[in-house]
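Researcher: Next entry: MAPEG family protein (Croceibacterium selenioxidans).
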Amino acid sequence: MIGMAILQPVVALAAWTMVMWFWMYATRIPALMASKVDPDELVRDPNKSLDAVLPAQVQWKAHNYNHLHEAPTVFYAVAIVLAMVGAGDGLNALLGWAYVALRVVHSLVQATVNKVTVRFVIFVLSSLVLVALIVHAAMVVF
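Model: Predicted structure:
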């Protein structure tokens, strides 16, 4: 079908989000058990959080999982618009894959070494790719 190639990076990023979900719980559950914290106590006390209880390296995965539900939601919407109007092939599909690659690299940096300046550069690059996709969608629909 014409214009549907951009849906491949959409599915890839959704799948990557689930990889981060598994990684988050694979590290968080053992850390929670080791900390012997009562999770119900955390929700009753506004001064307590998992960030205060669990090691930072464990929480990095959770923070990234949350990040994958922020800016990427705009990517999903724009990619679906581009597919619907038949403009999701060629350069737009390539930009979609670039966006996904940058988000995966961002995840790996945040979940492992968590260098903020490196993450910021990757985030800016992915945002510029997203802006290009938005501009391309705007040129088609307006």
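Model: Note for the record: The chain has a mean pLDDT of 96.
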